[in-house]
Automatic annotation (TrEMBL):
Entry protein name: Nucleolin 2-like
Organism of provenance: Camelina sativa
Residues in RRM domain copies: 20-81
Phylogenetic placement of the source organism: Eukaryota, Viridiplantae, Streptophyta, Embryophyta, Tracheophyta
Sorted UniProt keywords: RNA-binding
Organism superkingdom: Eukaryota
Length: 81
């Protein structure tokens, strides 16, 4: 029993990797790519911004933001709220 308890208290190695793309919602219907890049610039390099739109070109209020690294995406998550 002691061995099982020792194993559960052992530090687990950190997982490497993770997603570089974040889902952003509740966006303004007038937002553009540069607004999103400016908002996330302190987190890291924004590689791509995909804002969802309807066939008539109006925005749906959500999109995806891809960062250069998973670390930058993780930093961007800290900006939530």
């Amino acid at each position: 029993m002691v061995n099982a308890e020792q194993k559960s208290n052992a530090k687990q190695p950190k997982k490497q990797g993770g997603s570089k793309t974040l889902f952003a919602y509740n966006l303004s219907f007038r937002i553009n790519r540069s607004d999103i890049e400016d908002f996330f610039k302190e987190a890291g390099e924004v590689v791509d911004v995909r804002i969802a739109s309807r066939e008539d070109g109006t925005l749906k209020g959500f999109g995806h933001v891809e960062f250069a690294s998973a670390d930058a995406a993780h930093k961007a998550l800290q900006l939530n709220g």
